[in-house]
Amino acid sequence: MTARPYVTGPGTFDNSTVAGILEYETPSLHIKNLPLLKPQLPPLNDTSFATTFAGRLRSLASAEFPAKVSQEVERRFFFTVGLGTSPCDRNALCQGPNETKFAASVSNVSFVLPLKALLGVHFAGQSSGVYSPNFPVSPLRWFNYMGSPPSNTAVGNGTKLVILAFNTSVEVGFGNYDPNSDPNRFNLVDPVERNAVGVPAGRWVAIRMIMNGCIVDSGVWFMHCHLEVHTSWGLKMAWLVLDGKLPNQKLLPPPSDLPKC
Ligand SMILES: [Cu+2]
């Protein structure tokens, strides 16, 4: 087996190929001189190959493992994800263009980590002043996300959350999206249930979530880029799912040995 990254963006990264040899131990299959299969990998930037492969992923959608897709959506959000710049801190050395520092954002909000833990202050009822509950439902400024980027790359910032009632079904879309034609192409039958999704460059992805303790529990949930450097630049936001009415729909207290820092 071999594997290597798929990449379309600029920037340097480790583009080497990893390889492993899989040997079956079943004695009856001990045939000598089996040929060593060496997979042919597509080019690093073969978007159509990667898209076709990812598009074939399906859940089992069986009686034992049903696909829990909400057919109705109560709250719709339109997010953008991207890189940008912020002013350089005083006396700091910044590596972004025109002496700025690199920043990243969701819907142009570069997330500022609060000094107090969001989940902790939420549980303790002491969240006043720690975050604002007004993460934008859709981008404040629209442009063609699939065209050339705007010349102003400055991002805003803040500790902004989306607050949702328990059991809310949510749909999140990213990028350019046609609300009339695109929903017809959604897979509401057997999509994969997952905690990470690829957003193609200059394109969009639609996600559905139900905040019902089955898929997303009550509490505070970060949604963030899986490149650590982008997360540190602010490509993250948080959902706050309120408790439900039933006893098993409440946020559990922190463990007694939770380190205090
Ligand atoms: Cu990223």
TrEMBL record:
Top-level taxon of the source organism: Eukaryota
Residue intervals of the Plastocyanin-like domain: 171-243
The entry's keywords: Copper, Metal-binding, Oxidoreductase, Repeat, Secreted
Protein name (record): Plastocyanin-like domain-containing protein
InterPro entries (alphabetical): Cu-oxidase_C, Cu-oxidase_fam, Cu_oxidase_CS, Cu_oxidase_Cu_BS, Cupredoxin
The keyword Oxidoreductase belongs to this UniProt entry's keyword annotation: yes
Gene3D superfamilies from the UniProt entry: Cupredoxins - blue copper proteins (2.60.40.420)
Subcellular compartments: Secreted
